[in-house]
Amino acid sequence: MIHYLRVMAARLRGLFGDRRADRELSDEIESHLRLLTERYVRQGMSEDEAARAARRQFGNVTLLKEVDREMRRIRLIDTLVQDLRFGARMLLKHRGFTAVAVLSLSLGVGANTAVFSLADAFLWRALPGVSNDRLFTLAHGDGMAWACSYPDYVIYRDRNQSFAGIALYEPVILAFGNGERSRVVTGELVTGNFFEVLGVSMSQGRAFLPEEDRTPGAHPVVVVGHDFWVRELSSDPQMVGKSITLNNHSFTVIGVAAAGFAGISNPMRADVWVPMMMQAVAKPNEAVGLDSRNLGLFAIGRLKEGASRAPAEAELETINRQLQQAYPAPSDEEESWRKLPLSLAPAQGTLYQGIRQRVALGIALATVVAELVLLIACANVANLLLARAAARYKEIAIRLAVGAGRLRLIRQLLTESLLLALLAAAAGSLLAFWINQLLMSVQPALPPPYGLNVELRLDGRALGFTLLLSILTSVIFGLAPAWAATRPDVVPALKDEPQTSGRRQWLSLRNLLVVAQVALSLVLLIGAGLFIRSLRNAQATDPGFDTSNGLVMTLDLSLAQYKKERGLQFYQQLVERLATTPGVRSITIANYFPLGFGGGMGASVSIEGQPPPADGRPINVVRQHIGLRYFETMGIPLLRGRDFTIQDMASSERVVIINETMARRHWPNLKDIGEVIGRRIRIGPGQDMPWSAIVGVAGDCKTIWLREEKRAGIWMPISQNFLPSFQALVRTNAEDTATISTLRREIAALDPNLPIKFIIPLREHVGIQLWPAKMIAALTTTLGGVGLLLAAIGLYGVVSYAVARRTREIGIRMALGAQTRDLLKMIIKQGMRLTLAGVAIGLAAAMAMTRMVASLLYGVTATDPVTFAGVVIFLVGIALLACYLPARRATKIDPISAARHE
Amino acid sequence: MSKGKSAEARKSAVLQGTLDRMVLKVLDALGPHHGYGAARRIEQVSEQVLQLNEGTVYTSLLRLQQRKWIAAEWGASENNRKAKYYSITKSGRKRLARETENWERIAGVIGRLLKLEGQE
To answer: Nearest-CA neighbor of A316 among A328, A301, A331?
Structure first.
């Protein structure tokens, strides 16, 4: 091995200028000159004259050295071309081998490339349409996005020296248009310098002027995106100066952004940009104004030329501390949060830390899986190469015997591997492209602007990565076989002696490779098994309500500037109208329904007659504001007491319904939970909040997350706690597009200016949270299957090879009366020994590795014995088949010709 | 000896090829030589070729080595200094035999070489 490395080093030296050869040539020239000089001295010249004459006679030394160096280099390239041509011929000649090898490799390479483009889309890709030089988002030290209030931002902006500009931004959902065409769009609320900081130009008109972002509410202007302009504004060339309606307000279009820019809320696309000063119109739900220190907005900035990241971070931190001293935090929690140091993160991929972190975990998992598959594929190809080299051993032995350098042979074999790798790179890229298309198509089918617009691209970087990976793997899988095949013990090969058998052979490289393949496949399949069970468990989780036949509508009345009075009226009208619509069985509304995208509301409560909890922490419950007939429509059992009535909705007497968990947890000594009816709780943190009477106890159901543990929850009448953003559950006979259009028509009839955020079937709504689990299960299962297939092929190959080598022995045994069964047993035993070794190693590895994904599992432990056992049995079964097939072939051997075989 | 650059260049290309052949001839007929020794032998045989600088012998030697027509080995020179000796290989001899047929027609320098072989 050391020798080989030395030889490798010499080759590289030759490529980049061989110093030793240079030195040798110098020595030769020197002695030549010396001899010439001596000659001239003998002829009668003086030392100096002789030296000069010798130089003249010899010629230009430097030129000579240069020419020689060039010649050495060219020769190397010549032989490389020779190797490539020869390698290509060999690959074409053995088409079957080439096909299997390229297929195996491309599966491994393609999987990795797909993961790379996934990572690229979320983590590394430069923001489109933006000049990315020195652009950073401001974050907290632990990677959480930095939420800065507007007054703080002004101080950071004005006091710092490192930034050419800092802008604030916040994604918003806006209602666009009015009448029939009202719909929802995604926009970004930005400070006036936003486009300047990002370096985005306008294709028409201009960006914001400084005075347009100075006074709250004074300048309702908007910049629209290029796509939006084409899609919604019919590419009107006179758009600048005209107005559009956003949230029922008229905004003047002052510019159209350059094509290709879609905001920085990647992976969502923004269509419009509105000055921060228009916040009151753009976000009517926002409780606090711009001047509050409690408002959190995101910041992005560009460093000045020549400024570097670390000093800029330090400067921000200094200003941060100054602010903390000037404005002490209102609470301990706020205090600790503010103490986190500020940092600058390069603005690439998605800027949403929440998405970033979750995706990073998924990508890490996917990478591990893809690497495992690649390793299995490499092992397969290495095995194939070894088998082929073994078949060519006579040819190799002869070439070695007549003096072909071992190095030269290895180089030629490696060139063949390189060609394989290049073919695999091409095929792998195609596969990666196909995988990307597949992944993009399984994104949850949500309408814009909620649909994720993840673009998985195979750009130059991904392709470069593919190429590099292929070349790297060609070295990995090509090296060992090339080195093993050119071992200089050629004499036995030349003499046609059978290869040695025995224990040493059993430990051969090929067998080790197969053992490794089996182990890796086992790990992959166990992972897949665990994730599949997790998914099944998640899918089987009873959410506590009826999930069949329904549509969930999401609306936001604030987009149409509704206030409480009108809002409550709208709720009533909506329910009345839809209840009588044909096809609708029942309808109810709530400020949000369980599951879906997740997120909910909580409240702290105190219970009448009970002392506050000993540890000082308030009782936290989940709360929902609901309309009439909620429990009936949802299919949640009402265990005790009653539902809300119209009287409850109309009156100001505060009532509440609690769930079973809350009843049992906080009134543990009651004989029957019905006894809580009539008791009172106070909802809210203050001492002077009104008491609410409990009128009913409902069954437990999931409130926010599919995987949550049972928790205490309360329901309040929506009339007593109005919120403009709400959802309606409509139980229908069908969930088709006709029904959806009907619903849209009814809403438009009530208020044509109110856009519907989206309508999706209840099953999809509930299924949204299952999407990541589905992805992981699909990914691990597919790749695990691929890995198993490759390992089975590898096992089949090894057993076939063993059979071929022992043909003579088998023939003799048969002639001596061995039964088919005995032969089968003998051959299969050999293969199964390898399999079981692989299984043992794989089990150990799996036990260690699955611990790392325990947090992703639901309802199964990381070392779930059922999964482990099941996978082992499955794999052993496949392995048996892979061993049986060639074994069966062995029994069909004609003993006489076999006995003569060598 | 013609004047004019292109003629010079052409002549030197032809003579380079000739030099390769001459080096092979020397090594074949007269055994292993080091670079200086080979240059001296060639000088003995032809004066015209000496219009080329002696350093070009090394270029020839390298070319012939790359083609595996000669092989190099380190040894001790006449005055016991370390020197690189070149000797012709079997494929080199085969090549020479083929080339010699082509050159038999040309008189002058090559003719004298052939006569040299006949003498030894």
So the answer is: A301
Distant-in-sequence, close-in-space partners of A684: CB < 8 Å, separation ≥ 6: A603, A604, A605
Tally A–B CB contacts below 8 A.
Answer: 50
Q: Quick one: which of A483, A216, A527, A538 has its CA closest to A373?
A: A527
Q: How far is Cα A801 from Cα A513, in angstroms, rounded to an integer?
A: 14
The reply to whether residue A64 touches residue B58, judged by beta carbons under 8 angstroms, is yes
- In the block, residue with structure tokens 């990241």: A309
Sign of the CA dihedral running A114, A118, A120, A121: positive
Question: CA–CA separation, A54 vs A48, rounded Å?
Answer: 10
* Pairwise CB contact (< 8 Å): A64 & B84: no
Note whether A13 contacts B: Cβ–Cβ < 8 A.
Answer: no
What pTM did the predictor assign?
Answer: 0.68
Contact B62 A71 (CB under 8 A): yes
Query: How far out from the chain centre does Cα B96 lie?
Result: 11
Contacts of B78 (CB under 8 A, 6+ apart): none
CA A437 to CA A266: how far, in whole Å?
19
Q: How far is A73 from chain B (nearest CA, A)?
A: 11
User: What is the average pLDDT score of chain A?
Assistant: 82
B63 and A CB contact within 8 Å:
yes
Between the two ends of chain B, the Cα-to-Cα distance in Å is: 31
CA separation for the pair A254, A137 (Å, rounded): 27
Residue of A nearest to B81 (CA): A31
Q: Is the pLDDT of residue B5 over 60?
A: no
Whether A58 sits inside 8 A of B54 (CB atoms) is: yes
Residues 6 or more apart in contact with residue A629 via CB below 8 angstroms: A586, A587, A588, A643
Question: Does B62 contact chain A (CB < 8 Å)?
Answer: yes
Cβ neighbours of B52 in A, within 8 Å: 59
DSSP state of A120: I
pLDDT for A372: 87
Asked if residue A135 has pLDDT above 60, the reply is yes
Of the ranges A403-412, A776-785, A854-863, B34-43, which one carries the lowest mean pLDDT score? A403-412
Alpha carbon distance A51, A39 (integer Å): 10
In this prediction, residue B2 carries a pLDDT of: 41
- Give the residue from chain A lying closest to B62, CA to CA: A68
Distance to chain A for B53, nearest Cα, Å? 5
Among residues A816, A264, A773, which one has the least CA distance to residue A533? A773
Highest mean pLDDT among A694-703, A705-714, A728-737, A891-900: A694-703
Residue B101 pLDDT class (50, 70, 90 cuts): low
Question: From B57, which residue of chain A is nearest by alpha-carbon distance?
Answer: A58
A799 vs A806: CA distance, rounded Å: 10
Chain B interface includes A58 (CB < 8 A): yes
Give the containing element (helix H, strand E) for A771: helix A771-805
Query: Which chain A residues are closer than 8 Å to B54 by Cβ?
Result: 32, 36, 57-59
pLDDT digits (tens, 9 = 90+) for A557-571: 887 778 888 888 888
Tell me the shortest Cα–Cα distance from A401 to chain B, in angstroms: 16
Q: What residues have CB less than 8 Å from A581, skipping those under 6 apart?
A: A742, A743, A746
ipTM, 2 dp: 0.76
CB contact under 8 A, B36 and A35: yes
Contact B33/A at CB under 8 A: no
